[in-house]
């Protein structure tokens, strides 16, 4: 009997370790027998297997809901757990939707897990809360972290291209580490920012989007309409991107992950410059610059044919390594990660390096309290981003490139001057005589505390605290004679320091309650934040020694500290917000919200404004009259209205400003004194730009979820635009800022996702496509004006336009009767432009061509979108991501004459074009020297305007998922290898057909040689920036 009682004690100890209640044993033998019987009756053994589409999942957590009782799966995905009768099992695994299964009478359960983002029951983040996809009434799009990582890159912008209807990504630079321009449903403002608000882990993000490591992202939720963004008030007018980073999972054993890839970057296509034979022939036709200042430098006889691009471009290397560990106990969870990313350009010494750290800790304290902390920190170094291509592309191919010792020259003799030439040899041998570097550090930290209010089910109080810091140190040094046509050109250095600190605090009260078929969620918020910004700038000329570089500019012979480049500001924002969401039986849904913001940026009396929003949803598929339609899984109608504003008023802009200016002073004609003058007038009435949006949507899911989609139509009106109003010269100030003008955006979006083959004989095929069109219109300008030609603004036209001449061909020899009227003194072979005037009866124009014939050309596309597809067979998978656009205008500063590479004179090397001659009467490009003839130069930029249409395959990835037993015995639960090619090819692009080059923009107009006075700085162009590349990657993902 003693032995029997001892066994009972051991059994109860085992039950205790499984989280079961075991009372202290003080019983007789009979009581022991009774206790054993009770224990057996109170528990039930359940076994099972957890898997996904690729096989068993190792380390998945199975927990008895409402208890601390839990186990994890073994190497084969199997588990065994003792639970109470009627228990519910909660199954969780990193990167998969959590599932709940009622045990009932089951003793063996097989569960297939779905990756996050594949179900109507998935939860999306909507700002200050979450909601099931099925219950969302605003315009919200979701992208999972796994999709982000399908397109490797420095940040999230590459992954969003072509993924989401209504979200336009434009490349502003192809330099390493560069981010893209993001526009959600078009451009609204003429002078203020059009960038969306980024929210990182619940707190508005104060840094650069390149600071966020894509490896740490669990999901991104994009709020597109004002009924969804109004809760962010004055910062939500341009849309909101909510980024959620990974956290740990409770009751999860430690899980270690490694994600890495390495790859080579090659030039997408060479710039189509002329070779020696073509260039020599061009010079002969142009009859210009045929004799260099010293004939021994020239190879017009074909003895020299130099390809300077071969001497510059190299193969770049890109690599990324990320390691993370996550897990948790019954009361807490953790997630830590470290990563390193390096991206080299095809231009020597130009690269971007980033070191990043992510950490998140969550801990329950007792029954009612939960606290947590997350940080995303990074340190980046960008090297030699100042290196451009103009000198290399414009270098003549017939100049002798070698010194007497056989080495490459740093300067070559051009037709009328000398020119420094960038080559691998010259750049890599510069040493201390050149350095261009940006070092940036950012740390973004969020703390929270959450309390469940006792005795009030569903009521919680939460406080969020965000502490953000970002600093950037930029330095540039160019030694004596470097990059110059003269050996004795002075050395110079630049140093710039920028620092931003930001804190934000949010107090939030939430109430969630479900009774019967009714569900209500209510949020009340008070928040405050403050931002401090500082910038210093210094320039030095004639640095005494290369070793000083930009580290001690004070030793320069001439030091300039320009007040215009020094900056400091402090701004604050205070807000209150409320929102109520109601759901009846997942059939009828409503959301009502308001937010009031007060900003220190504006004058008293204009600092506060309130933003209302309301949206309604009707899941019509749940009505009784729809139940017989078996192929319809879900059909929801949505409508929403909301108001937001643009907060991008510069601090202190309502106060006016004083600046310094030098004045002649005294009898000395060279004497002067520095005085102050009013540079901008105060405006105590200056306020924010306001947007009002109506959104109409329909969400549907058909055939058991195999086909789903969303269609939306929206109209957004923006009023009180920030614009410059001209003043008479007698005022002493040329203009002042005021709230005048209106714009309108309206558009249609369609997204479709489908499963074409659903695991048939090992085959799976999924595909998605999206399409959207946005019509942008300038409705009203200041003082009732209908056009502002200096800014290219025209009422009734889009915001982004080109106001210039439009080439329709080349004047031919048989058009003399028309040409002598249209272009007096002109010749055959000149550019022929579109004419806006009237014609005489004989078909000749009534006047010469001139200023009145400038055209308003739309820049933005008529429509655009993207598609993606994934085909899998057993362990193999192949995925393709693409984007497309139709219409609009692509600006190429390489083909436009102001870029100097298409002057057709022979002074510098020229783009290889099909130019006009008497023997080749083409309509493509003018005759050599023709751009300089008579009055024709003003038409030269028309050569650089192309249709913006293209279809671009962005990534093709082939992967293999290992599922071999030997891996599991080594403790590896998942392993995957893949090969990716990025930017493989382009179709249906007129620009690509002409040049062979990538039709995506790579710079702003004012960043290109000699065009700063022509192209608007906010227009994106294909220019002399670092060229686009085709990338070849090999990657490995492992989970231990």
From TrEMBL:
Residues 133-240 form the TonB-dependent receptor plug domain. It comes from the Bacteria. Coiled coil: none annotated. It is found in: Cell outer membrane. It is a multi-pass membrane protein. InterPro entries: Beta-barrel_TonB, Beta-barrel_TonB_sf, CarboxyPept-like_regulatory, Plug_dom, Plug_dom_sf, TonB-dep_OMP_SusC/RagA, TonB-dep_OMP_SusC/RagA_CS, TonB-dep_rcpt-like. GO terms for cellular component: cell outer membrane. Keywords: Cell outer membrane, Membrane, Receptor, TonB box, Transmembrane, Transmembrane beta strand, Transport. Its main location: membrane. Residues 384-886 form the TonB-dependent receptor-like beta-barrel domain. Gene3D superfamilies: Carboxypeptidase-like, regulatory domain, TonB-dependent receptor, beta-barrel domain, TonB-dependent receptor, plug domain. Pfam families: CarbopepD_reg_2 (PF13715), Plug (PF07715), TonB_dep_Rec_b-barrel (PF00593). NCBIfam families: OMP_RagA_SusC, SusC_RagA_signa. Belongs to the TonB-dependent receptor family. This is TonB-dependent receptor. The lineage of its organism: Bacteria, Pseudomonadati, Bacteroidota, Bacteroidia, Bacteroidales.
């Amino acid at each position: 009997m003693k032995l029997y009682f001892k066994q009972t004690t051991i059994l109860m100890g085992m039950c205790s370790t499984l989280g079961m209640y075991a009372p202290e044993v003080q019983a007789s033998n009979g009581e022991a027998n009774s206790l054993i019987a009770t224990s057996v009756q109170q528990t039930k053994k359940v076994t099972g297997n957890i898997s996904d589409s690729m096989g068993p999942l190792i380390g998945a957590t199975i927990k008895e809901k409402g208890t601390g009782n839990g186990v994890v799966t073994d190497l084969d995905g199997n588990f065994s757990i003792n639970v109470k009768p009627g228990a519910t099992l909660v199954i969780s695994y990193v990167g998969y939707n959590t599932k709940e299964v009622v045990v009932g009478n089951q003793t063996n359960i097989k569960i297939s897990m779905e990756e996050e983002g594949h179900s109507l029951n998935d939860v999306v983040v909507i700002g200050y809360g979450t909601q099931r996809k099925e219950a969302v009434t605003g315009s919200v799009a979701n992208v999972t972290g796994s999709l982000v990582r399908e397109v490797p890159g420095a940040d999230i912008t590459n992954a969003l291209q072509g993924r989401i209807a209504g979200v336009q990504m434009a490349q502003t630079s192809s330099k390493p580490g560069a981010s893209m321009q993001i526009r959600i449903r078009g451009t609204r403002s003429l002078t203020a920012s059009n960038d969306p608000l980024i929210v990182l882990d619940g707190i508005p993000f104060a840094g650069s989007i390149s600071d966020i490591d894509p490896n740490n992202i669990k999901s991104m939720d994009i709020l597109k309409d004002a009924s969804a963004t109004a809760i962010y008030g004055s910062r939500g007018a341009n849309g909101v991107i909510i980024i959620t980073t990974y956290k740990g999972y409770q009751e999860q054993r430690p899980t270690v992950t490694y994600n890495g890839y390495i790859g080579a970057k090659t030039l997408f296509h060479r710039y189509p410059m002329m070779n020696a034979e073509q260039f020599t022939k061009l010079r002969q036709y142009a009859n210009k610059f045929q004799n260099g200042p010293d004939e021994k430098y020239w190879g017009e006889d074909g003895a020299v044919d130099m390809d300077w691009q071969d001497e510059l471009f190299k193969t770049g290397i890109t690599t990324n390594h990320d390691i993370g560990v996550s897990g948790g106990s019954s009361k807490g969870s953790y997630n830590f990660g470290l990563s390193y990313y390096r991206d080299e350009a095809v231009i020597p010494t130009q690269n971007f390096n980033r070191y990043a750290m992510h950490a998140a800790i969550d801990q329950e304290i007792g029954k009612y309290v939960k606290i947590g902390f997350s940080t995303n920190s990074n340190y980046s170094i960008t090297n030699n981003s100042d290196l451009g291509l103009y000198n290399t592309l414009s270098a003549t191919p017939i100049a002798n490139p070698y010194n007497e010792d056989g080495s490459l020259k740093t300067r070559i003799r051009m037709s009328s001057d000398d020119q420094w030439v960038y080559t691998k040899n010259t750049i890599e041998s510069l040493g201390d005589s050149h350095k261009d570097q940006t070092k940036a550090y950012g740390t973004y930290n969020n703390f929270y505390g959450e309390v469940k209010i006792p005795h009030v089910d569903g009521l919680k109080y939460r406080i969020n605290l965000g502490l953000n810091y970002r600093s950037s140190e930029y330095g540039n040094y160019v030694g004596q004679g470097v990059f110059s046509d003269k050996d004795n050109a002075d050395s110079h250095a630049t140093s710039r320091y920028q620092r931003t600190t930001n804190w934000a605090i949010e107090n939030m009260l939430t109430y969630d309650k479900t009774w019967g078929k009714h569900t209500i969620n209510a949020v009340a918020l008070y928040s405050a934040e403050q931002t401090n910004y500082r910038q210093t700038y210094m320039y030095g000329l004639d640095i005494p020694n290369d070793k000083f570089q930009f580290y001690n500019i004070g030793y320069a012979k001439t030091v300039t500290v320009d007040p215009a480049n020094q900056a400091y500001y402090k701004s604050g924002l205070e807000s209150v917000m409320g929102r109520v969401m109601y759901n009846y039986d997942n059939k009828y849904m409503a959301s009502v919200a308001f937010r009031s913001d007060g900003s220190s940026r504006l004058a008293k009396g204009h600092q506060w404004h309130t933003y209302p929003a309301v949206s309604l949803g009707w899941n019509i598929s749940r009505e009784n009259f729809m139940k017989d339609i078996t192929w319809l899984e879900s059909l929801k109608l949505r409508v929403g209205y909301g108001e937001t504003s643009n907060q991008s008023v510069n601090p202190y802009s309502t106060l006016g400003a004083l600046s310094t200016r030098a004045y002649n002073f005294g009898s000395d004609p060279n004497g002067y004194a520095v005085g102050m003058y009013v540079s901008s007038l105060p405006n105590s009435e200056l306020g924010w730009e306001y947007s009002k949006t109506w959104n109409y949507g329909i969400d549907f899911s058909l055939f058991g979820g195999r086909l789903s989609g969303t269609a939306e139509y929206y109209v957004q009106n923006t009023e009180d635009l920030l614009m410059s109003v001209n003043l008479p010269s007698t005022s002493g100030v040329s203009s002042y800022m005021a709230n005048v003008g209106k714009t309108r955006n309206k558009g249609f979006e369609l997204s479709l996702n489908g499963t074409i083959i659903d695991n048939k004989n090992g085959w799976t095929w999924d595909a998605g496509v999206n399409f959207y069109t946005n019509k942008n219109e300038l409705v009203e300008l200041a003082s009732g004006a209908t056009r502002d030609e200096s800014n290219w603004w025209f009422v009734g036209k889009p915001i982004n336009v080109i106001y210039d001449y439009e080439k329709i061909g080349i004047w031919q020899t048989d058009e003399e009767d028309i040409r002598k009227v249209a272009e007096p003194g002109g010749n055959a072979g000149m550019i022929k432009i579109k004419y806006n005037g009237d014609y005489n009866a004989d078909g000749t124009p009534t006047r010469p061509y001139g200023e009145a014939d400038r055209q308003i050309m739309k820049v933005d596309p008529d429509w655009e979108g993207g598609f993606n597809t994934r085909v899998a067979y057993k362990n193999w998978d192949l995925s393709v991501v693409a984007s497309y656009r139709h219409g609009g205008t692509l600006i190429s500063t390489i083909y436009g004459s102001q870029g100097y590479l298409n002057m057709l004179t022979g002074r510098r090397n020229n783009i290889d074009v099909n130019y006009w001659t008497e023997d080749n009467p083409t309509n493509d490009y003018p005759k050599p020297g023709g751009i300089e003839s008579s009055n024709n130069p003003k038409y030269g930029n028309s050569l650089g305007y192309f249709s913006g249409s293209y279809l671009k395959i962005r990534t093709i990835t082939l992967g293999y998922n290992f599922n071999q037993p030997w891996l599991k015995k080594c403790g590896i639960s998942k392993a995957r290898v893949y090969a990716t090619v990025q930017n493989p090819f382009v179709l249906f692009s007129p620009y690509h057909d002409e040049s062979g080059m990538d039709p995506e923009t790579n710079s702003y107009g004012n960043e290109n040689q000699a065009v700063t006075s022509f192209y608007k700085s906010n227009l994106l162009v294909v220019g002399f920036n670092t060229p686009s590349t085709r990338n070849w990657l090999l990657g490995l993902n492992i989970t231990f």
